Structure formats: structure tokens, C-alpha cells
Amino acid sequence: MESFHSNSVEIFYTVFEPLDQDRQEPIVLAHGFASTHAVNWMFTQWVKTLTEDGRRVILFDLRGHGRSQKLYEPEAYTFAAMAGDLGGLLDHLGLDRADLMGYSLGARVATYFTLHHPERVRSLILGGVGVSLLAPSATQPGMAEAMEAERIEDIDDPSLKIFRGFAESTRSDLKALAACARGSRGGFEPADLAKIATPTLVCAGTRDDVAGDPHPLAQMFQNAHIVDVPGRDHNRAVGDRIFKQAALDFLAERP
């Protein structure tokens, strides 16, 4: 991986070139909370899917995640700061515009970036979100405390216990994740989403209680298409073939 500095924060990224060198259409992917570029996008075969489709795939680790710099103050994890890292990556690579895809926390970062920099986003793909996009925090209540618990056995909420186990499996910095959970606050209002005219695809599993129902978002964005991923929960929807095919179809049809 390579790195650059975004307002003094070191962000690690990697680029995968398309099999068809004549296309070179860039797409930037932003992963979810407690995940990494590899876990979210490489292990699930998204990179293979997109490069075979002629996309130049750009992955990065969100601040506080993976190899990117760990920060321990909640104010370091505002959506403005994390979206600033995304914009800095585009600048670093000399890209004026790209398709943008985010999952869960990454979907919120992608939405924020699109809202404030629509001219830089050719299309927007959101996974692992639904009405949760309107919630006041990117993570559920108690997430920071779950990351700070001395032992996973001390966590009572089954959902929070799953996230803590996932964070441990990705060898995450739990203190940094607790700060991220506290800092990534501020939901989107329907009036905010109504400002986004960028072609948008929203995909969520039908058993994804974290994302919630994605269908109400179709009436909030100006130009959104909703796809259900049948029988999948929050962790399993990300690599599902239906999600991948929906994204490929969407990218082929968007202007």
C-alpha cells in the first residue's frame, strides 16, 4: 500500500488497474466500521468483479482503521474530516471525478462527500444502509462502550458483541474505534438527501437490522434506485452476488 497525508493524518490506499486498459473508469470504495479495505472489498471479491468490468478500483483505509493513522479524540472522526480524506485521495491521484461506493459507515462518508462535492461524484452506490442513514449516529448506541469493554464476554447486547468480535478479528485498534463511534455523529435529514441529484443505488439485505428498510430513501434522493439483497444480514450482504450484479448494471447504465 501507499500513503498520503490528509490534513496531517496519514491515510493508506491502494489502486487496482482494470483488465481492460482502454476503459480506466475510476471508482473509490469506502469500507464499514471496524473493517478495512481488504476485509470489505478484497476478501469479498469486489476488486475482481470491478476490475474485470473495466473499473480502476481505488481502496483506502478510513482514518482509525486498517493501516491508516489511529486517532483517539472523537472530534477527529466527524464526517467532514473523513470525507476530507476521501477528497484528499482524489486530489492526490489527480482525479477530478469518480464513481463512489460505500458500505455502512463508508456509505455515510460517501453520502456526506456527495452532498458537499456533487461535481466530483459521477455516481453513488450505498450498501448496508437504509433508514439508518437518518439516524443521529453512524453506529448503534453503546458501540463505543462495547469497544472499550475489558472482555467481549462483558457485553450483553448480541449485536454489539458481534461488532466487538468482528473488530477483534480484524485486529482493530479498539480505542480508536471507540473514538470513531463517538465522533461519527450527525444523521442526514430528508432535506439533505433531497439535494443529491447524483445517480444513486442503495442496496441492503432484507435481514439487515443495522441498515433498516432502504425503500423510503427512494423518495428522499432525487435519483435513487433501491435493490433488496434477499435473506442477507449486515455482514453477509456486502459480498452477495445480487449486490454485485446490481452495482455492475447500475454503473453500465448511469450517464
What would the keywords be for this entry?
single chain, 255 residues, alpha/beta, Rossmann fold, eight-stranded mixed beta sheet, 8 strands, 20% strand, globular
Mean pLDDT figure: 96
Give, in order, the helices and strands. Answer: EEEHHEHEHEHHHHEEH
Number of separate structural domains: 1
Counting copies of identical and different chains, the oligomeric state is: single chain
Find the structural class using helix and strand composition: alpha/beta
CATH architecture: 3-Layer(aba) Sandwich
CATH class: Alpha Beta
Q: With helices defined by DSSP (H or I, 4 residues minimum), what is the helix count? A: 9
| Strand numbers in spatial order across the main sheet | 1-2-4-3-5-6-7-8
Stretches with pLDDT under 50, minimum 5 residues: none
Radius of gyration: 17 Å
Helical coverage, percent range: 25-40%
Find the CATH topology. Answer: Rossmann fold
What distance separates the N and C termini? 32 Å
The CATH superfamily is: Alpha/Beta hydrolase fold, catalytic domain
Record the SSE blueprint.
Elements: E1 2-6, E2 9-16, E3 25-30, H1 37-42, H2 46-52, E4 55-60, H3 79-92, E5 98-103, H4 105-116, E6 121-127, H5 143-148, H6 158-169, H7 174-183, H8 190-193, E7 200-205, E8 224-229, H9 241-253
Parallel strand pairs: 3-4, 3-5, 5-6, 6-7, 7-8
Antiparallel strand pairs: 1-2, 2-4
Helix pairs in contact: 3-4
Task: Explain the overall architecture.
The structure is a single chain. By secondary structure, the protein is α/β, with parallel strands linked by helices. It has a single domain (2-139, 175-253), classed as Alpha/Beta hydrolase fold, catalytic domain (Rossmann fold). It has nine helices and eight strands. Strand 5 (98-103), helix 4 and strand 6 (121-127) form a beta-alpha-beta unit. Helix 3 (79-92) packs across helix 4 (105-116). The mean pLDDT is 96.
